[in-house]
Design a protein that fits this description.
about 130 residues; alpha+beta; four-stranded antiparallel beta sheet; three-stranded antiparallel beta sheet; about 35% helix; about 35% strand; elongated
Length: about 130
């Protein structure tokens, strides 16, 4: 994970998920020794809360209709990817729609999708894209 130098001794810090997945183990190893110099067990929720608080999550809508979520602090690694139609289908699942919100929410969703479609069509016509 990270190479550090402390008091002239080069070492390596690693952070791994424990076998049960409930904690992270941070281990510092010095290059010339077989065992760790120090280890500490950190609760998973503490580590992940610290990471996500400082994370910059970006979204990108690609021209093929896929939407990507990425963490900008991890060399733009893709965290999730789905098509726009998959996201709409998922949103319209009955268990995600509260009946009292449905008419207004669905009207707004439809209006946004129509505006997006108009934008795509206008761009294609300006560019003479078939």
């Amino acid at each position: 994970m990270d190479r550090t130098r402390k008091h002239g001794v080069e070492g390596r810090l690693t952070l791994t998920l424990d076998g049960g997945g409930k904690a992270y183990v941070a281990t510092y190893r010095v290059a010339d020794t077989s065992g760790p110099l120090a280890s500490i067990v950190l609760p998973r929720e503490v580590v992940e809360a610290a990471v996500f608080i400082n994370a910059r999550i970006g979204l990108e809508l690609r021209t093929d209709g896929s939407l990507l979520a990425f963490a900008s602090h991890t060399s733009m690694q893709t965290l999730a990817c789905a098509s726009l139609s998959e996201l709409v289908d998922e949103t319209l699942r009955p268990e995600f729609i509260a009946l009292e919100e449905t008419p207004n929410a669905l009207t707004e969703l439809e209006a946004q999708l129509e505006r997006a479609l108009v934008s795509v069509r206008e761009f294609r016509s300006r560019r003479s894209i078939g």
